[in-house]
């Protein structure tokens, strides 16, 4: 169709209105690519599909597609050796979760309406892959923004040791800052952090009374942030444990990414089908 005709029809305005109605980024992409078709069979097929969806929409409470986003870039990166982060893995999990909700919903409709045939929707639903194992793997290991402690025995052990060591550090530093003899020597009776080390704020004139490492000072120079010698080795232990934690975390993410790569084709198919369904009004 000629561009002038599209302008007369205000086709871009129509697309903008449709964009406001769809729920997911997947459907928005399809709307942006939308062009009129002059092929009779294509138009008939799309009208039949729309009719089927309209019938279901008018009779049932349809599961929401809210929260779906494009995962194709993540999946492609997984297949070439990149490592996905927790947020990217959760986006893939959300795709699987929504497709499973729709499969359950649709199967229930088919069971309830045995005499009704949704030919176009049947074709779409039959394409949806089984991705339960991948979903469970991500679900069991990934919280909303980090890995669960229980993502592996090793990670749980490391984080437990970090927690216990930090508690030991806090106990020792609390003893220092709460000591009656130290009250006048501190700018504030608190434990704070500088350069990822636990420190106490010491008035500059009392520097010689505290054996330890100066990590920072206030803008005025009147307060020094000192890591007391008594906790230096404990802080070193925490640093080593943090490094171990990062290594284990990376290993788990790489393992999950490999599982995504193994199901890459299935995930891409799921994204295609779900985007198509949202585009048509689900």
Q: How would you portray this structure in words?
A:
- The chain is an alpha+beta fold.
- The protein has two domains: 3-131 and 263-279; 153-252, MutS, DNA mismatch repair protein, Chain A, domain 3, CATH 1.10.1420.
- Helices cover 62% and strands 8% of the residues.
- The chain has a four-stranded antiparallel beta sheet.
- The longest helix is centred in the C-terminal third of the chain and has 34 residues, at 229-262.
- InterPro entries: DNA_mismatch_repair_MutS_sf, MutS.
Which features would summarize this protein structure in a list?
elongated, alpha+beta, 2 domains, 4-stranded antiparallel sheet, 282 residues, MutS, DNA mismatch repair protein, Chain A, domain 3, ATP-dependent DNA damage sensor activity, Recombination and DNA strand exchange inhibitor protein
């Amino acid at each position: 169709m000629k561009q002038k005709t599209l302008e007369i029809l205000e086709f871009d305005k129509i697309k903008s209105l449709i964009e406001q109605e769809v729920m997911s980024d997947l459907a928005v992409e399809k709307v942006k690519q939308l062009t009129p078709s002059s092929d009779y069979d294509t138009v008939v097929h799309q009208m039949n599909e729309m009719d089927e969806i309209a019938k279901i929409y008018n009779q049932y409470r349809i599961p929401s597609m809210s929260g779906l986003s494009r995962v194709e870039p993540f999946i492609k990166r997984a297949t070439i050796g990149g490592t996905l982060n927790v947020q990217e893995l959760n986006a893939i999990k959300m795709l699987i979760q929504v497709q499973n909700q729709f499969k359950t919903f649709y199967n229930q409709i088919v069971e309830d309406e045995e005499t009704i045939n949704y030919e176009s929707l049947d074709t779409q639903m039959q394409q949806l892959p089984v991705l339960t194992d991948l979903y469970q793997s991500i679900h069991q290991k990934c919280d909303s923004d980090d890995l669960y402690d229980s993502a592996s025995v090793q990670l749980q052990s490391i984080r437990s040791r970090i927690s216990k060591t930090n508690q030991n550090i806090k106990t020792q530093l609390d003893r220092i800052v709460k000591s009656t003899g130290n009250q006048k020597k501190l700018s504030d009776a608190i434990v704070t952090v500088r350069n990822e080390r636990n420190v106490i704020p010491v008035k500059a004139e009392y520097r010689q009374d505290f054996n330890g490492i100066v990590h920072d000072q206030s803008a005025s120079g009147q307060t020094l942030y000192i890591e007391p010698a008594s906790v230096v080795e404990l802080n070193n232990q925490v640093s080593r444990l943090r490094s171990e934690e990062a290594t284990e975390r990376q290993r788990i993410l790489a393992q999950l990414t490999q599982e995504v790569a193994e199901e890459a084709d299935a995930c891409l198919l799921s994204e295609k089908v779900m985007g198509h369904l949202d585009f048509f009004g689900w």
